[in-house]
Amino acid sequence: MSKPNVVITRRIPEAGLARVQEVCQVRQWDSDDPIPRETLLEWVRGIDGLYCLLTERIDEELLDAAGSNLRVVSTLSVGYDHIDVAACRRRNIAVGNTPGVLTETTADLAVALLLATARRIPEAIDAIRRGEWTTWKPMWMAGQDVHGSTVGIVGLGRIGRAVARRLRGFNCRILYHDVRPRPEVADELGATYVDMDTLLAECDFITLHPRLNASTYHLFDAEKFRKMKKTAILINTSRGPVVDQEALYQALVNGEILAAGLDVTEPEPLPVDHPLLQLPNCVVLPHIASASVATRTKMALIAAENLIAGVQGKPLPYPVEDES
Ligand SMILES: NC(=O)C1=CN([C@@H]2O[C@H](COP(=O)(O)OP(=O)(O)OC[C@H]3O[C@@H](n4cnc5c(N)ncnc54)[C@H](OP(=O)(O)O)[C@@H]3O)[C@@H](O)[C@H]2O)C=CC1
Ligand SMILES: O=CC(=O)O
User: Fold this and answer.
1) Buried b / exposed e across 259-270, counting CB within 10 Å, b at 16+?
2) Most buried pick, 55, 238, 247, 281, via CB within 10 A?
3) For ligand 1, is residue 102 a contact (CB within 6 Å)?
C-alpha cells in the first residue's frame, strides 16, 4: 500500500522528520526560512496531512487548495491561533498541537525575561559594551525587586501556573485573572483571583499567558496601561496581538508603566528599525520561550505522532478541541 502524502513546511528536528518518514511520503521545505505562500498552496494540493509551524496561516484558502484528501493539520506549537480550527472541523480535518511538553521551558523563559527586565540586565550589558562602566555608582542601573513583589498572571493555564510555581520561590504575592476563577489549581499555588481592574492597580509585574483569540486580541490597550502602576512592568510570552503595541509604546515613552519584556510581538519578526527596539526600557526577544533543544525535539515528535494518527484516521494524541 502506498504511503500517505504529507508536507512539512520547514526544517524540523531530525527525530521528528525521521518518525514521519517511517510512515509517510514526505515533501519538506528543507530550510529555516518560511515556505513562500504560493509554493505552499501548490504543494498542499492532494496531500493527506500537513505538518506546519505557527508562522503559516492555515485558512479556508489553503484548505480549499489542499482538497478533500486532507485529514490532519499538525502544528509544531501549542498555540493554534494561526489555524482556522472551525474551517478544519467543517471539512472533518483533525487539528493537533503540542500542549504540556513546552510548559516548563516556556515558564523558565518568562521568569528569565521578567528578571532581565526588572533588573535591567540587557541595558547593563549594552552599557558595558559602550564603555560606560566607569565606576560603582549607587543608583546606576538600579532596577525593581522581584522578590516580595506582587505579580499578576493573566491566564492561569498550564504556563501561567508554571510561572506561579516559580515565583512562589521569590516570595511573591500572586494574583491572577482568567475567564473564571480556578480554585482547583490556584489554591495550591497560593494565587488569588481578582478582577482585571484590581490586577492592574495592585501588581508590580503583570505576565500574560492566555491564548490569542477574539477575547484576548489587544486585551492590553491604552486604557489598561493607564490603570497600571507607573512602576509596573509588563511581560508578554503569549502572542504579540494580545498587546496593542502602539499603546504599549506610548505607555513606555510617557512613563505610564516602567518597562516591558516581550518574547512575542506584532509583527514577527519585528523590523530592526521598530521604535520599540530603540527603548532602553523594553526588552525584546525573538519568540524563543520554548526554545530548548530537548523541548523543541519533543514538540517535533508530538507533532509527528499527531500527523501520523491523523493520516491513519485514528484519534490524535493531542487534539485541539477549542475553536475560539
Ligand atoms: N512565546 C512562546 O514561545 C510560547 C507562547 N505560548 C503561548 O502561550 C499560550 C498559553 O499556553 P498554555 O498555558 O499551554 O495554554 P492554556 O490553554 O493551558 O492556558 C491559557 C489560559 O488562558 C485562559 N484565557 C483564555 N481567554 C482569556 C482571557 N480573555 N483572559 C484571561 N485568561 C484567558 C484560558 O482559559 P480557557 O481555557 O477557559 O479558555 C486558560 O486558562 C499559547 O496559546 C501560546 O499562544 C506557548 C508556548 C510558547
Ligand atoms: O509560541 C509557541 C507555541 O508553541 O505556541
Assistant:
1) bbbbbbbbeeeb
2) 238
3) yes
